[in-house]
Specification:
alpha/beta; seven-stranded parallel beta sheet; five-stranded parallel beta sheet; 2 domains; 12 helices; 35% helix; binds (2R)-2,3-dihydroxypropanoic acid; single chain; Rossmann fold
């Protein structure tokens, strides 16, 4: 075959079929991400690479990859890729927007409900034999319906979270660079300053991309501005939150709880301060925002489409650069 590509993890068969119709696939079969030196060696002999958010793609890595025409990321976020370095080398970058929007919004809402209503804690304690009787005071949480939800970053996923919030009669506030007329008209969402959002929200849900501006956007200062009863939800990217400061804020009762799907380092080390926070104050998940069979298949198919377009010199269906 004329083309050769490196695929850095096993994928749904539909995606592999799309790729193998056009190119010879060098597939990394490991469960863990391929080591950096392996990626460098593989892409030196490839026209394209399909990567995941666990693969760091930068200039030095691509220096020996003279054939490489495209880096296709199976995710909507691409903070693991040095896009300017790709552009400089004439390497196209693609991502998978749109298809994971609703699935990720579902998970953000699952975390809102799980943290507010102590779902994981109550399940664990029932299994631990702590259910002695129906009790007026035990496992009481906070209502989601009628509460105020603050959305930081009202893009596609933020919009879908706002749509779900409407079904729960929530008041929706948001912070975003530009106003979102759709969310304002459709759900009565109100654009406010960050200070106002922090002061008024019962739930603060993060949906902005990780950039130099949003790295550690949330830390001690922001937690202090939130209600002591407030709950922070992060399904976006771990480094948007200063994780050590979040752990401290939860331990000190500065905010009430957090629902966290993404971490500063993934997988989160088991001795991380966040995992030492008592389970009644935090629900932690292993970055599963987009993890439904249907959505992961659609993401892989989109990434395959970007890859095969890129190696053939065609415009990517979902270009980043
Ligand atoms: C993305 O696509 O950026 C998600 O984090 C992966 O689910």
């Amino acid at each position: 075959m004329q083309y050769r590509v490196f695929v850095s993890r096993r994928l749904p068969q539909e995606a592999l079929d799309i790729i193998s119709a056009v190119a010879e696939i060098d597939l990394w079969e490991g469960d863990a991400p391929p080591p950096r030196d392996v990626i460098a060696e593989k892409i030196a002999a490839a026209d394209g690479m399909l990567c995941l958010l666990t693969d760091r793609i930068d200039g030095p890595l691509m220096d020996g990859a003279s054939r490489l025409k495209v880096v296709s990321q199976m995710a909507v976020g691409y903070d693991n890729i040095d896009v300017p370095a790709c552009t400089q080398r004439g390497v196209k970058v693609g991502n998978t927007p749109g298809v994971l929007t609703e699935t990720t919004a579902d998970l953000a809402f699952a975390l809102i409900l799980a943290t507010a209503r102590r779902v994981v804690q109550a399940d664990n304690e029932l299994r631990g034999g702590e259910w002695k009787t129906w009790s007026p005071l035990q496992w009481t949480g906070t209502d989601v319906h009628g509460a105020t939800l603050g959305i930081v970053g009202l893009g596609r996923i933020g919009y879908e979270v706002a749509r779900r919030a409407r079904g729960f009669d929530m008041k929706v506030l948001y912070c975003n660079r530009s106003a979102h007329e759709g969310a304002e008209n459709d759900f009565g969402a109100v654009k406010v300053s960050m200070e106002e959002l922090l002061a008024q929200s019962d739930f603060v849900s993060l949906h902005c991309p990780l950039t130099t501006e949003t790295r550690h956007l949330f830390g001690t200062e922001q937690f202090k501005q939130m209600k002591p009863s407030a709950i922070l939800i992060n399904t976006a990217r771990g480094p948007i939150v200063n994780q050590i400061e979040l752990a401290q804020a939860l331990q000190d009762g500065v905010i009430a709880a957090a629902g966290i799907d993404v971490f500063e380092a993934e997988p989160v080390p088991l001795n991380d301060p966040l995992l030492q926070v008592p389970a009644d104050r935090i629900v932690v998940l292993p970055h599963i925002g987009s993890a439904s069979v249907k959505t992961r298949t659609r993401m892989a198919v989109l990434a395959a489409g970007n890859l095969v377009a890129g190696i053939q010199g065609l415009p990517l269906p979902h270009p980043v650069n």
